[in-house]
Amino acid sequence: MQAYDVVVIGAGNGGLTAAAKLAQEGLNALLLERHNIPGGAATSFCRGRFEFEVALHQLSGLGTPDKPGLLRLQLDKLGVMDDLEFVEISDFYHVATPDGFRITLKTNREETIAVLKDQFPHEKDAIQRYFDLMASYANDMVGAFIFRDPEPSREKYPNLYQYALRNSKEILDEYFSDPLLKAVLSVYWGYIGVPPTRLAFAYLSMILFQYMEFKPYHVKGGSQAISNAILNKFISNGGSARFNCGAKKIIVDDGQIKGVITDDDDEVTTRYVVSNISPIATYNHLMDPEHISQDVSVEMKSRNLSTSALTMFIGFDCGPEQLGITESTNFLMSSTDISDGLFDRMNRLDIKDELMVLSCYDVTDPEFSPAGTCQANVVTLKYGEPWLRIPPRQYHDVKFRCADAMLKRIYEIYPEAKNHVEEVEVGTPLTHMRYLGHPLGAIYGYEMLTKDSLFFQPGRHSPINGLSFVGGWAGDNGFEPTLRSGISAAKSIIRRMGQDKNNFTNMSS
Ligand SMILES: Cc1cc2nc3c(=O)[nH]c(=O)nc-3n(C[C@H](O)[C@H](O)[C@H](O)COP(=O)(O)OP(=O)(O)OC[C@H]3O[C@@H](n4cnc5c(N)ncnc54)[C@H](O)[C@@H]3O)c2cc1C
Protein backbone atom coordinates (compact mmCIF):
# COMPACT_ATOMS: atom_id res chain seq x y z
CA MET A 1 0.00 0.00 0.00
CA GLN A 2 1.45 3.38 -0.99
CA ALA A 3 1.70 6.17 1.59
CA TYR A 4 1.45 9.91 0.90
CA ASP A 5 1.79 12.93 3.15
CA VAL A 6 -1.33 14.43 1.55
CA VAL A 7 -3.95 13.31 -0.99
CA VAL A 8 -5.66 16.08 -2.97
CA ILE A 9 -9.07 15.22 -4.43
CA GLY A 10 -9.88 17.17 -7.58
CA ALA A 11 -7.61 19.13 -9.93
CA GLY A 12 -9.67 22.33 -10.12
CA ASN A 13 -7.98 25.66 -9.34
CA GLY A 14 -7.91 25.07 -5.58
CA GLY A 15 -6.75 21.45 -5.80
CA LEU A 16 -4.00 22.30 -8.28
CA THR A 17 -2.49 25.16 -6.29
CA ALA A 18 -2.74 23.19 -3.03
CA ALA A 19 -0.92 20.25 -4.63
CA ALA A 20 1.72 22.48 -6.24
CA LYS A 21 2.45 24.33 -2.99
CA LEU A 22 2.71 21.08 -1.01
CA ALA A 23 5.14 19.59 -3.55
CA GLN A 24 7.15 22.82 -3.63
CA GLU A 25 7.60 22.50 0.13
CA GLY A 26 8.92 18.96 -0.30
CA LEU A 27 5.82 16.99 0.70
CA ASN A 28 4.88 13.76 -0.98
CA ALA A 29 1.44 14.54 -2.46
CA LEU A 30 -0.96 12.59 -4.66
CA LEU A 31 -3.47 14.44 -6.85
CA LEU A 32 -6.57 12.49 -7.94
CA GLU A 33 -8.76 13.81 -10.76
CA ARG A 34 -11.81 12.13 -12.24
CA HIS A 35 -11.59 13.91 -15.60
CA ASN A 36 -8.82 13.27 -18.11
CA ILE A 37 -7.33 16.79 -17.93
CA PRO A 38 -6.53 19.26 -15.15
CA GLY A 39 -8.47 22.45 -14.39
CA GLY A 40 -12.07 21.59 -13.45
CA ALA A 41 -13.92 24.65 -14.79
CA ALA A 42 -10.53 26.19 -15.71
CA THR A 43 -10.22 24.25 -18.90
CA SER A 44 -10.83 24.20 -22.66
CA PHE A 45 -12.12 21.73 -25.24
CA CYS A 46 -11.81 21.39 -29.02
CA ARG A 47 -14.47 21.41 -31.74
CA GLY A 48 -13.43 21.64 -35.38
CA ARG A 49 -10.53 24.07 -35.64
CA PHE A 50 -11.43 25.90 -32.40
CA GLU A 51 -10.16 25.39 -28.86
CA PHE A 52 -12.94 26.86 -26.73
CA GLU A 53 -12.36 28.50 -23.35
CA VAL A 54 -14.82 27.12 -20.78
CA ALA A 55 -14.91 29.53 -17.86
CA LEU A 56 -12.45 32.40 -17.65
CA HIS A 57 -13.98 35.72 -18.68
CA GLN A 58 -11.96 38.30 -16.75
CA LEU A 59 -9.21 37.29 -14.35
CA SER A 60 -9.03 39.54 -11.28
CA GLY A 61 -6.31 40.19 -8.70
CA LEU A 62 -3.31 39.93 -11.02
CA GLY A 63 -2.17 43.54 -11.33
CA THR A 64 0.96 44.59 -13.20
CA PRO A 65 4.59 43.71 -12.41
CA ASP A 66 4.95 47.26 -10.99
CA LYS A 67 1.75 47.12 -9.01
CA PRO A 68 1.19 43.43 -8.37
CA GLY A 69 -2.04 42.03 -6.99
CA LEU A 70 -2.02 39.18 -4.47
CA LEU A 71 -2.61 36.59 -7.20
CA ARG A 72 0.47 37.65 -9.20
CA LEU A 73 2.62 37.50 -6.06
CA GLN A 74 1.38 34.04 -5.17
CA LEU A 75 1.66 32.56 -8.67
CA ASP A 76 5.15 34.03 -8.83
CA LYS A 77 6.15 32.29 -5.60
CA LEU A 78 4.72 29.06 -6.99
CA GLY A 79 7.11 29.51 -9.91
CA VAL A 80 4.55 29.53 -12.72
CA MET A 81 4.53 33.17 -13.84
CA ASP A 82 7.35 32.63 -16.36
CA ASP A 83 5.28 29.92 -18.07
CA LEU A 84 2.27 32.19 -18.59
CA GLU A 85 1.56 35.22 -20.73
CA PHE A 86 -1.28 37.41 -19.45
CA VAL A 87 -3.11 39.91 -21.65
CA GLU A 88 -4.69 42.99 -20.08
CA ILE A 89 -8.32 43.67 -21.03
CA SER A 90 -8.88 47.40 -21.34
CA ASP A 91 -12.63 47.38 -20.81
CA PHE A 92 -14.76 46.49 -17.83
CA TYR A 93 -17.60 45.69 -20.12
CA HIS A 94 -19.86 46.79 -22.92
CA VAL A 95 -23.64 46.75 -22.48
CA ALA A 96 -25.91 46.39 -25.49
CA THR A 97 -29.71 46.29 -25.66
CA PRO A 98 -31.84 45.29 -28.69
CA ASP A 99 -33.23 48.85 -28.98
CA GLY A 100 -29.76 50.18 -29.82
CA PHE A 101 -28.48 51.39 -26.43
CA ARG A 102 -24.69 50.89 -26.23
CA ILE A 103 -22.21 51.82 -23.51
CA THR A 104 -18.61 50.77 -22.82
CA LEU A 105 -17.13 51.15 -19.36
CA LYS A 106 -13.34 51.27 -19.31
CA THR A 107 -11.18 50.18 -16.39
CA ASN A 108 -10.03 53.76 -15.95
CA ARG A 109 -12.24 55.19 -13.20
CA GLU A 110 -12.37 58.79 -14.50
CA GLU A 111 -13.12 57.65 -18.06
CA THR A 112 -15.94 55.44 -16.82
CA ILE A 113 -17.46 58.20 -14.70
CA ALA A 114 -17.29 60.56 -17.70
CA VAL A 115 -18.98 58.05 -20.05
CA LEU A 116 -21.73 57.37 -17.53
CA LYS A 117 -22.37 61.08 -16.93
CA ASP A 118 -22.50 61.63 -20.67
CA GLN A 119 -25.12 58.88 -21.19
CA PHE A 120 -27.09 59.60 -18.02
CA PRO A 121 -26.75 63.40 -17.48
CA HIS A 122 -29.82 63.47 -15.20
CA GLU A 123 -27.92 61.23 -12.72
CA LYS A 124 -24.63 63.16 -12.93
CA ASP A 125 -24.19 63.99 -9.25
CA ALA A 126 -25.33 60.60 -8.05
CA ILE A 127 -22.84 58.86 -10.37
CA GLN A 128 -19.96 60.80 -8.82
CA ARG A 129 -21.19 60.09 -5.28
CA TYR A 130 -21.67 56.39 -6.05
CA PHE A 131 -18.09 55.97 -7.32
CA ASP A 132 -16.82 57.92 -4.30
CA LEU A 133 -18.73 55.54 -2.04
CA MET A 134 -17.21 52.52 -3.79
CA ALA A 135 -13.72 53.95 -3.34
CA SER A 136 -14.26 54.65 0.39
CA TYR A 137 -15.85 51.25 0.89
CA ALA A 138 -12.92 49.54 -0.84
CA ASN A 139 -10.42 51.46 1.31
CA ASP A 140 -12.20 50.23 4.44
CA MET A 141 -12.18 46.63 3.16
CA VAL A 142 -8.47 46.80 2.37
CA GLY A 143 -7.65 48.26 5.80
CA ALA A 144 -9.78 45.84 7.78
CA PHE A 145 -9.34 42.63 5.76
CA ILE A 146 -6.36 42.72 3.43
CA PHE A 147 -4.13 44.28 6.10
CA ARG A 148 -5.96 42.29 8.79
CA ASP A 149 -6.49 45.08 11.28
CA PRO A 150 -6.53 43.28 14.66
CA GLU A 151 -8.92 45.87 16.09
CA PRO A 152 -11.43 46.87 13.42
CA SER A 153 -14.18 49.19 14.57
CA ARG A 154 -17.14 51.18 13.25
CA GLU A 155 -15.23 54.41 13.91
CA LYS A 156 -12.23 53.30 11.85
CA TYR A 157 -14.23 51.74 9.01
CA PRO A 158 -17.64 53.47 8.88
CA ASN A 159 -18.45 52.48 5.28
CA LEU A 160 -17.64 48.85 5.86
CA TYR A 161 -19.98 48.64 8.84
CA GLN A 162 -22.70 50.62 7.14
CA TYR A 163 -22.74 49.03 3.68
CA ALA A 164 -21.11 45.58 3.59
CA LEU A 165 -24.21 43.56 4.30
CA ARG A 166 -26.80 45.73 2.63
CA ASN A 167 -28.06 44.32 -0.61
CA SER A 168 -26.85 45.94 -3.81
CA LYS A 169 -30.27 46.86 -5.14
CA GLU A 170 -31.03 48.83 -1.99
CA ILE A 171 -27.91 50.96 -2.49
CA LEU A 172 -28.55 51.43 -6.21
CA ASP A 173 -32.14 52.52 -5.44
CA GLU A 174 -30.84 54.94 -2.84
CA TYR A 175 -28.50 56.61 -5.34
CA PHE A 176 -30.29 56.39 -8.70
CA SER A 177 -33.75 56.58 -10.23
CA ASP A 178 -32.99 55.51 -13.82
CA PRO A 179 -33.64 51.72 -14.13
CA LEU A 180 -31.30 51.37 -17.11
CA LEU A 181 -28.40 52.94 -15.20
CA LYS A 182 -29.04 50.67 -12.21
CA ALA A 183 -29.07 47.64 -14.51
CA VAL A 184 -25.87 48.76 -16.27
CA LEU A 185 -24.04 49.24 -12.96
CA SER A 186 -25.07 45.87 -11.56
CA VAL A 187 -24.37 43.44 -14.43
CA TYR A 188 -21.50 41.85 -12.49
CA TRP A 189 -24.09 40.12 -10.31
CA GLY A 190 -23.75 37.44 -12.98
CA TYR A 191 -20.16 36.75 -11.85
CA ILE A 192 -21.36 35.94 -8.32
CA GLY A 193 -24.60 34.27 -9.37
CA VAL A 194 -26.84 36.19 -6.99
CA PRO A 195 -29.29 38.87 -8.22
CA PRO A 196 -28.81 42.40 -6.78
CA THR A 197 -31.73 41.97 -4.35
CA ARG A 198 -29.69 39.39 -2.40
CA LEU A 199 -26.16 40.36 -3.36
CA ALA A 200 -24.10 41.92 -0.56
CA PHE A 201 -22.90 45.37 -1.66
CA ALA A 202 -19.47 44.18 -0.46
CA TYR A 203 -19.23 41.97 -3.55
CA LEU A 204 -20.58 44.37 -6.18
CA SER A 205 -18.31 47.19 -5.06
CA MET A 206 -15.21 45.03 -4.59
CA ILE A 207 -15.50 43.44 -8.05
CA LEU A 208 -15.56 46.88 -9.67
CA PHE A 209 -12.80 48.18 -7.43
CA GLN A 210 -10.57 45.13 -8.06
CA TYR A 211 -10.89 45.45 -11.83
CA MET A 212 -10.28 49.21 -11.64
CA GLU A 213 -7.18 48.85 -9.46
CA PHE A 214 -5.67 45.63 -10.80
CA LYS A 215 -7.31 45.44 -14.25
CA PRO A 216 -9.02 42.39 -15.76
CA TYR A 217 -6.82 39.90 -17.64
CA HIS A 218 -7.03 37.03 -20.01
CA VAL A 219 -4.24 34.54 -20.60
CA LYS A 220 -2.66 33.24 -23.81
CA GLY A 221 -3.80 29.67 -24.30
CA GLY A 222 -6.85 30.26 -22.08
CA SER A 223 -7.40 29.04 -18.56
CA GLN A 224 -6.14 25.59 -19.62
CA ALA A 225 -2.69 27.16 -19.89
CA ILE A 226 -2.87 28.19 -16.19
CA SER A 227 -4.03 24.71 -15.15
CA ASN A 228 -1.31 23.00 -17.22
CA ALA A 229 1.42 25.28 -15.86
CA ILE A 230 0.45 24.57 -12.24
CA LEU A 231 0.18 20.83 -12.86
CA ASN A 232 3.60 20.78 -14.56
CA LYS A 233 5.13 22.59 -11.59
CA PHE A 234 3.56 20.05 -9.22
CA ILE A 235 4.97 17.13 -11.20
CA SER A 236 8.41 18.68 -11.65
CA ASN A 237 8.58 19.12 -7.86
CA GLY A 238 7.99 15.40 -7.38
CA GLY A 239 4.17 15.27 -7.07
CA SER A 240 2.16 12.31 -8.41
CA ALA A 241 -1.05 12.86 -10.40
CA ARG A 242 -3.60 10.32 -11.57
CA PHE A 243 -6.20 11.32 -14.17
CA ASN A 244 -9.36 9.38 -15.06
CA CYS A 245 -9.07 8.30 -11.45
CA GLY A 246 -11.15 9.99 -8.77
CA ALA A 247 -11.43 9.32 -5.08
CA LYS A 248 -14.06 6.69 -4.28
CA LYS A 249 -13.79 6.65 -0.52
CA ILE A 250 -12.08 8.53 2.30
CA ILE A 251 -11.10 6.25 5.16
CA VAL A 252 -11.68 7.78 8.59
CA ASP A 253 -10.99 6.19 11.93
CA ASP A 254 -11.76 7.74 15.29
CA GLY A 255 -12.18 11.20 13.79
CA GLN A 256 -8.84 11.05 11.92
CA ILE A 257 -8.15 10.68 8.18
CA LYS A 258 -6.40 7.38 7.52
CA GLY A 259 -6.43 6.94 3.75
CA VAL A 260 -8.22 7.11 0.43
CA ILE A 261 -9.54 4.45 -1.94
CA THR A 262 -9.32 5.48 -5.58
CA ASP A 263 -11.79 4.73 -8.39
CA ASP A 264 -9.29 1.99 -9.42
CA ASP A 265 -9.78 0.40 -5.99
CA ASP A 266 -6.25 1.24 -5.02
CA GLU A 267 -5.95 2.02 -1.30
CA VAL A 268 -3.39 4.65 -0.26
CA THR A 269 -2.59 5.74 3.27
CA THR A 270 -2.42 9.37 4.35
CA ARG A 271 -3.28 11.52 7.36
CA TYR A 272 -4.28 14.56 5.30
CA VAL A 273 -6.88 15.01 2.57
CA VAL A 274 -7.55 18.26 0.70
CA SER A 275 -10.94 18.15 -0.95
CA ASN A 276 -11.53 20.38 -3.99
CA ILE A 277 -15.06 19.02 -4.35
CA SER A 278 -18.25 19.96 -2.54
CA PRO A 279 -18.63 19.13 1.16
CA ILE A 280 -21.92 17.49 0.09
CA ALA A 281 -20.11 14.99 -2.16
CA THR A 282 -17.15 14.66 0.22
CA TYR A 283 -19.24 13.73 3.27
CA ASN A 284 -22.19 11.98 1.62
CA HIS A 285 -20.50 10.10 -1.21
CA LEU A 286 -16.97 9.49 0.02
CA MET A 287 -17.48 8.79 3.73
CA ASP A 288 -19.48 6.45 5.90
CA PRO A 289 -22.44 8.29 7.48
CA GLU A 290 -21.24 7.83 11.06
CA HIS A 291 -18.40 10.30 10.37
CA ILE A 292 -20.77 13.17 9.54
CA SER A 293 -21.21 15.20 12.69
CA GLN A 294 -24.41 17.01 13.62
CA ASP A 295 -22.66 20.37 13.11
CA VAL A 296 -21.59 19.45 9.59
CA SER A 297 -25.12 18.27 8.73
CA VAL A 298 -26.68 21.46 10.04
CA GLU A 299 -24.13 23.60 8.21
CA MET A 300 -24.77 21.82 4.89
CA LYS A 301 -28.55 22.05 5.27
CA SER A 302 -28.38 25.77 6.03
CA ARG A 303 -26.85 26.58 2.65
CA ASN A 304 -28.41 26.84 -0.83
CA LEU A 305 -26.69 25.52 -3.91
CA SER A 306 -25.59 28.19 -6.34
CA THR A 307 -26.89 28.53 -9.84
CA SER A 308 -25.51 26.62 -12.81
CA ALA A 309 -25.39 27.97 -16.36
CA LEU A 310 -26.31 27.56 -19.98
CA THR A 311 -23.13 28.09 -21.95
CA MET A 312 -22.71 28.48 -25.67
CA PHE A 313 -19.41 28.30 -27.53
CA ILE A 314 -19.43 29.72 -31.05
CA GLY A 315 -16.62 29.63 -33.62
CA PHE A 316 -16.93 32.26 -36.37
CA ASP A 317 -15.21 32.13 -39.77
CA CYS A 318 -14.18 35.80 -39.55
CA GLY A 319 -12.60 38.28 -37.15
CA PRO A 320 -14.56 40.12 -34.42
CA GLU A 321 -14.52 43.46 -36.29
CA GLN A 322 -16.53 41.92 -39.16
CA LEU A 323 -19.20 40.92 -36.64
CA GLY A 324 -19.24 44.34 -34.97
CA ILE A 325 -17.77 42.96 -31.71
CA THR A 326 -15.47 45.71 -30.47
CA GLU A 327 -15.01 44.78 -26.79
CA SER A 328 -13.93 41.58 -25.04
CA THR A 329 -16.72 41.49 -22.48
CA ASN A 330 -20.26 42.23 -23.60
CA PHE A 331 -23.44 42.04 -21.58
CA LEU A 332 -26.50 41.54 -23.79
CA MET A 333 -29.40 43.02 -21.85
CA SER A 334 -33.06 43.00 -22.84
CA SER A 335 -34.60 43.84 -19.49
CA THR A 336 -33.64 46.37 -16.85
CA ASP A 337 -35.29 44.28 -14.14
CA ILE A 338 -32.91 43.72 -11.21
CA SER A 339 -35.59 42.51 -8.80
CA ASP A 340 -36.20 39.06 -7.29
CA GLY A 341 -37.82 38.23 -10.65
CA LEU A 342 -34.31 37.30 -11.82
CA PHE A 343 -34.53 34.18 -9.64
CA ASP A 344 -37.64 33.13 -11.62
CA ARG A 345 -35.81 33.61 -14.90
CA MET A 346 -32.91 31.48 -13.67
CA ASN A 347 -35.40 28.71 -12.88
CA ARG A 348 -37.10 28.77 -16.30
CA LEU A 349 -36.38 26.25 -19.01
CA ASP A 350 -36.41 28.83 -21.76
CA ILE A 351 -34.67 32.01 -22.86
CA LYS A 352 -36.59 35.26 -23.15
CA ASP A 353 -34.99 38.27 -21.55
CA GLU A 354 -32.13 36.74 -19.57
CA LEU A 355 -28.93 38.73 -19.10
CA MET A 356 -26.18 37.10 -21.16
CA VAL A 357 -22.45 37.72 -21.13
CA LEU A 358 -20.60 37.26 -24.41
CA SER A 359 -16.81 37.15 -24.22
CA CYS A 360 -14.70 37.42 -27.32
CA TYR A 361 -11.06 36.90 -26.32
CA ASP A 362 -9.86 37.60 -29.87
CA VAL A 363 -10.56 41.33 -29.39
CA THR A 364 -7.64 41.66 -26.95
CA ASP A 365 -5.62 38.70 -28.22
CA PRO A 366 -5.96 38.33 -32.03
CA GLU A 367 -4.01 35.05 -31.88
CA PHE A 368 -6.51 33.41 -29.54
CA SER A 369 -8.38 31.60 -32.36
CA PRO A 370 -6.99 30.36 -35.71
CA ALA A 371 -6.06 33.17 -38.16
CA GLY A 372 -9.11 34.77 -39.76
CA THR A 373 -11.54 33.40 -37.15
CA CYS A 374 -12.76 34.30 -33.69
CA GLN A 375 -14.81 32.71 -30.94
CA ALA A 376 -17.48 33.78 -28.49
CA ASN A 377 -18.21 32.24 -25.12
CA VAL A 378 -21.78 33.09 -24.10
CA VAL A 379 -23.20 32.42 -20.63
CA THR A 380 -26.57 32.88 -19.01
CA LEU A 381 -27.30 31.65 -15.49
CA LYS A 382 -29.76 28.79 -14.91
CA TYR A 383 -30.43 26.70 -11.82
CA GLY A 384 -29.81 22.98 -12.27
CA GLU A 385 -32.91 21.60 -10.58
CA PRO A 386 -35.44 22.20 -13.42
CA TRP A 387 -33.03 20.55 -15.87
CA LEU A 388 -32.90 17.39 -13.78
CA ARG A 389 -36.68 17.11 -14.05
CA ILE A 390 -36.65 16.99 -17.89
CA PRO A 391 -37.42 13.46 -19.15
CA PRO A 392 -34.29 12.18 -20.95
CA ARG A 393 -36.02 11.98 -24.36
CA GLN A 394 -36.94 15.68 -24.18
CA TYR A 395 -33.53 16.90 -23.02
CA HIS A 396 -32.09 17.58 -26.49
CA ASP A 397 -35.22 19.46 -27.61
CA VAL A 398 -35.10 21.76 -24.57
CA LYS A 399 -31.34 22.29 -24.91
CA PHE A 400 -31.53 23.17 -28.62
CA ARG A 401 -34.61 25.35 -28.16
CA CYS A 402 -32.67 27.38 -25.58
CA ALA A 403 -29.62 27.46 -27.84
CA ASP A 404 -31.72 28.79 -30.75
CA ALA A 405 -33.17 31.49 -28.51
CA MET A 406 -29.68 32.48 -27.33
CA LEU A 407 -28.47 32.70 -30.94
CA LYS A 408 -31.48 34.86 -31.83
CA ARG A 409 -30.58 37.26 -29.01
CA ILE A 410 -26.97 37.40 -30.24
CA TYR A 411 -28.07 38.11 -33.83
CA GLU A 412 -30.27 40.98 -32.59
CA ILE A 413 -27.14 42.76 -31.36
CA TYR A 414 -24.65 41.47 -33.94
CA PRO A 415 -26.74 40.81 -37.11
CA GLU A 416 -23.69 39.89 -39.22
CA ALA A 417 -22.94 36.98 -36.84
CA LYS A 418 -25.59 34.74 -38.40
CA ASN A 419 -23.65 34.62 -41.70
CA HIS A 420 -20.39 33.46 -40.09
CA VAL A 421 -21.14 30.66 -37.61
CA GLU A 422 -18.81 27.72 -38.22
CA GLU A 423 -19.07 25.73 -34.95
CA VAL A 424 -21.53 25.77 -32.06
CA GLU A 425 -21.47 23.75 -28.85
CA VAL A 426 -23.87 24.11 -25.94
CA GLY A 427 -23.49 23.18 -22.28
CA THR A 428 -26.40 22.94 -19.84
CA PRO A 429 -26.48 22.60 -16.04
CA LEU A 430 -26.38 18.84 -16.65
CA THR A 431 -23.13 19.23 -18.61
CA HIS A 432 -21.59 21.12 -15.67
CA MET A 433 -22.87 18.46 -13.30
CA ARG A 434 -21.26 15.74 -15.39
CA TYR A 435 -17.87 17.39 -15.88
CA LEU A 436 -17.40 19.06 -12.48
CA GLY A 437 -19.22 16.46 -10.39
CA HIS A 438 -20.93 19.22 -8.38
CA PRO A 439 -24.53 18.78 -7.13
CA LEU A 440 -27.07 20.27 -9.56
CA GLY A 441 -24.15 21.49 -11.70
CA ALA A 442 -23.63 24.42 -9.28
CA ILE A 443 -20.86 26.54 -10.80
CA TYR A 444 -20.33 28.89 -7.85
CA GLY A 445 -20.37 26.46 -4.88
CA TYR A 446 -22.81 27.49 -2.19
CA GLU A 447 -25.03 30.43 -3.11
CA MET A 448 -23.58 33.72 -1.83
CA LEU A 449 -26.80 35.24 -0.58
CA THR A 450 -26.08 38.18 1.70
CA LYS A 451 -26.62 35.93 4.74
CA ASP A 452 -23.96 33.49 3.46
CA SER A 453 -21.56 36.08 2.06
CA LEU A 454 -17.90 36.64 2.81
CA PHE A 455 -18.23 37.13 6.56
CA PHE A 456 -20.22 33.92 7.16
CA GLN A 457 -18.60 31.33 4.94
CA PRO A 458 -18.14 27.71 5.98
CA GLY A 459 -14.36 27.95 5.56
CA ARG A 460 -11.95 25.19 4.74
CA HIS A 461 -11.75 23.29 8.01
CA SER A 462 -13.60 20.12 8.96
CA PRO A 463 -14.15 18.57 12.38
CA ILE A 464 -12.46 15.48 10.94
CA ASN A 465 -8.75 15.67 11.71
CA GLY A 466 -6.68 16.03 8.57
CA LEU A 467 -9.55 17.03 6.24
CA SER A 468 -9.67 20.46 4.65
CA PHE A 469 -11.52 22.03 1.74
CA VAL A 470 -10.32 24.30 -1.04
CA GLY A 471 -11.91 25.98 -4.05
CA GLY A 472 -15.32 27.43 -4.62
CA TRP A 473 -17.10 25.40 -1.92
CA ALA A 474 -14.82 26.64 0.83
CA GLY A 475 -15.09 30.37 0.25
CA ASP A 476 -15.53 32.88 -2.53
CA ASN A 477 -15.77 31.66 -6.11
CA GLY A 478 -13.94 32.83 -9.18
CA PHE A 479 -10.43 32.20 -10.44
CA GLU A 480 -8.57 34.48 -8.06
CA PRO A 481 -10.09 33.28 -4.76
CA THR A 482 -10.01 29.60 -5.72
CA LEU A 483 -6.40 29.69 -6.94
CA ARG A 484 -5.38 31.46 -3.74
CA SER A 485 -7.41 29.14 -1.49
CA GLY A 486 -5.25 26.14 -2.41
CA ILE A 487 -2.05 27.95 -1.50
CA SER A 488 -3.30 29.05 1.90
CA ALA A 489 -4.74 25.59 2.65
CA ALA A 490 -1.37 24.02 1.82
CA LYS A 491 0.42 26.45 4.14
CA SER A 492 -1.98 25.69 6.93
CA ILE A 493 -1.48 21.91 6.46
CA ILE A 494 2.28 22.38 6.64
CA ARG A 495 1.89 24.34 9.89
CA ARG A 496 -0.46 21.68 11.21
CA MET A 497 1.99 18.90 10.34
CA GLY A 498 4.67 20.75 12.31
CA GLN A 499 2.37 20.94 15.33
CA ASP A 500 1.37 17.25 15.01
CA LYS A 501 5.04 16.29 14.86
CA ASN A 502 5.82 18.35 17.98
CA ASN A 503 2.88 16.85 19.85
CA PHE A 504 4.04 13.36 18.86
CA THR A 505 7.64 14.07 19.92
CA ASN A 506 6.45 15.51 23.26
CA MET A 507 4.22 12.51 23.91
CA SER A 508 6.97 9.98 23.21
CA SER A 509 9.67 11.80 25.23
C1 LIG B 1 -19.31 28.76 -17.20
C2 LIG B 1 -18.44 29.35 -16.12
C3 LIG B 1 -18.01 30.67 -16.21
C4 LIG B 1 -17.17 31.23 -15.21
N1 LIG B 1 -16.67 32.50 -15.37
C5 LIG B 1 -15.75 33.00 -14.49
C6 LIG B 1 -15.05 34.25 -14.68
O1 LIG B 1 -15.22 34.93 -15.67
N2 LIG B 1 -14.20 34.71 -13.74
C7 LIG B 1 -13.94 33.98 -12.63
O2 LIG B 1 -13.13 34.41 -11.82
N3 LIG B 1 -14.57 32.80 -12.41
C8 LIG B 1 -15.45 32.28 -13.31
N4 LIG B 1 -16.05 31.06 -13.10
C9 LIG B 1 -15.86 30.40 -11.82
C10 LIG B 1 -14.52 29.68 -11.73
O3 LIG B 1 -14.30 28.99 -12.93
C11 LIG B 1 -14.60 28.73 -10.57
O4 LIG B 1 -14.88 29.47 -9.38
C12 LIG B 1 -13.30 27.97 -10.32
O5 LIG B 1 -12.73 27.51 -11.52
C13 LIG B 1 -13.64 26.81 -9.39
O6 LIG B 1 -12.45 26.17 -9.01
P1 LIG B 1 -12.46 25.05 -7.90
O7 LIG B 1 -11.11 25.05 -7.27
O8 LIG B 1 -13.62 25.22 -7.00
O9 LIG B 1 -12.58 23.66 -8.69
P2 LIG B 1 -13.60 23.11 -9.77
O10 LIG B 1 -13.39 23.84 -11.06
O11 LIG B 1 -14.97 23.08 -9.23
O12 LIG B 1 -13.04 21.64 -9.99
C14 LIG B 1 -13.33 20.53 -9.17
C15 LIG B 1 -12.60 19.32 -9.76
O13 LIG B 1 -12.87 18.17 -8.96
C16 LIG B 1 -12.99 17.03 -9.81
N5 LIG B 1 -13.72 15.97 -9.08
C17 LIG B 1 -15.04 15.91 -8.77
N6 LIG B 1 -15.30 14.80 -8.05
C18 LIG B 1 -14.10 14.14 -7.90
C19 LIG B 1 -13.68 12.95 -7.22
N7 LIG B 1 -14.54 12.19 -6.52
N8 LIG B 1 -12.37 12.59 -7.28
C20 LIG B 1 -11.47 13.36 -7.95
N9 LIG B 1 -11.81 14.49 -8.61
C21 LIG B 1 -13.10 14.89 -8.57
C22 LIG B 1 -13.74 17.58 -11.02
O14 LIG B 1 -13.59 16.73 -12.13
C23 LIG B 1 -13.05 18.94 -11.17
O15 LIG B 1 -11.91 18.83 -11.99
C24 LIG B 1 -16.85 30.46 -14.08
C25 LIG B 1 -17.28 29.13 -13.99
C26 LIG B 1 -18.04 28.56 -15.00
C27 LIG B 1 -18.42 27.10 -14.92
What does this structure look like?
There is one protein chain. The longest helix is centred in the last third of the chain and has 30 residues, at 479-508. The protein is α/β, with parallel strands linked by helices and 509 residues long. The chain folds into three domains: 2-84 and 222-303 and 449-508, FAD/NAD(P)-binding domain, CATH 3.50.50.60; 108-214; 307-439. Strand 11 and strand 12 (256-262) form a beta hairpin. The strands form five sheets. Strands 8-7-16-17-18-15-19 form a seven-stranded mixed sheet, with helices on both faces. Strands 10-3-2-14-20 form a five-stranded parallel sheet, with helices on one face. A four-stranded mixed sheet has the order 1-13-12-11, covered by helices on one side. Helix 1 runs parallel beside helix 10, helix 1 (13-24) crosses helix 18 (479-508) and helix 4 crosses helix 9. Helices cover 39% and strands 19% of the residues. The structure holds flavin-adenine dinucleotide.
